[in-house]
Amino acid sequence: MFQPTGPHLFLPTASSTAEPLRAAASVVFNLPGYQVLSACDLPLGGRRVTAVANSTEAACPDCGVISARVHQRTRQKVKDLGVGGKDIELIVIKPRFLCIELACSRRTFTQVTSQLPFRARCTARLKAAAVEAVLDEGMPIWAACARHRLGWATINAAIIADTVTIPDPDQVPVRALGIDEHRFARAKWFKHPETAQWCRVEPWMSTFVNAATGHILGVVDGRSSANITRWLRARSQAWLEGLEVVAIDPSSAFRNAVAQVLPAVEISVDHWHVVRLGNQMLTEVRQRVTREVLGRRGRKQDSVWAHRMLLLRAGDRLTDAGLHRLEQVLEDEDFEQVAAAWAVKERLRAMLAAQDIPAAQNARIDFEMAVAAADMAETDKLATTVATWWTEIKVFVRTHVTNARTESVNTGIKHIKRTGRGFRNQRNYQSRILGTSIRQTRRRRRIPHQQGLHAQR
């Protein structure tokens, strides 16, 4: 709708832009760069607000010459945040300026502001609120669409545009790097076109995390050594030289990739996964011995089955009542192999809890003696794994660099995946992960720890 220029239309003057005080309606509406001309209630609810930009001149997008000559004024309806618990119908009066440069091919151009860019149909603060709802609150896009009255494509494009502001990994100094994988979607089956055989495909993704802050630096497809190597080689030489330790799970693919690109960087194996291997060994021994002794799987009336979770708990953290129940389970002569496996598991935990390398080596001797006394295939397999990763275990004992932050990030990634009800577009999936991570990191940095405050994840 066009509206001619006339004396009845109030517009700000050049001196009004420098005036520090604003009208009461403009203060309440609080749209940066705009002032309210009128406001009224609508018959069916909501409010209609008419606003105009404070600036009375603009630069031509082609030649850059500043012009204050108005060709015509238009009224444009745009979407904006609600005020006072009611939806807003925002009417913006936009001037179309005449280019005063005779050599310029463009004759007219529309006013553009930070809140209403070129061809915008909603304010920038409305898009920012929608992005905040998705990335900060963990809200699915369809719920953000219902809250802010925007389309799915609009909010998704705003989220992808927000990821452009994420700093490049080379600009983030990292001393300890964590690498871990997670499954992007469910496993799928497809028929091979040449062999006509059904093949199983598990879509995995690998995540690179700053082990000190939990900031996600990158997400790549797959979990093979080639994908890890490709991402590491893409980093700058200065960034690679700043790395000191890389924390990984007991994965040969990750270890080979790091050793190939970063031969001088130490590799630390995450102790939680090593303890998990010990618990898995104990569970396998318990299940095998139960079948051999009872001829069936365990039931609730069997003491060793009823206390299966007690066997996996840390022995030095049990209460007196827990220790008494555990002694009753381990004293059963029919399940002496379970007691031997439990002793191996506890020696493994003591080795990982050592404070220095000599203490860890002494604890390893006790561990190997317990393995020799147990004399079982399951314990021998665990001892072989410890021997294979002994160098990385010593790095963990000395540096105490773990994948705890990386595992925490994976929990957040799973929440993003559940909220999105599955992502078919990997670009959208990665933008959610990176956008959520950087905003959480920025919130933690803004909170002063000197005041006793801590960021809430």
UniProtKB/TrEMBL annotation:
Signal peptide per UniProt: none
Residue ranges constituting the Transposase IS204/IS1001/IS1096/IS1165 zinc-finger domain according to the UniProt record: 58-100
Region annotation Disordered: where it falls in the sequence: 434-457
Transposase IS204/IS1001/IS1096/IS1165 DDE domain: residues covered: 177-433
InterPro entries to which the protein is assigned, alphabetical: Transpos_ISL3 (IPR047951), Transposase_DDE (IPR002560), Transposase_Znf (IPR029261)
Organism domain of life: Bacteria
Entry-linked PANTHER family: TRANSPOSASE FOR INSERTION SEQUENCE ELEMENT IS1557
Name of the protein this chain belongs to: ISL3 family transposase
Source organism per UniProt: Nesterenkonia cremea
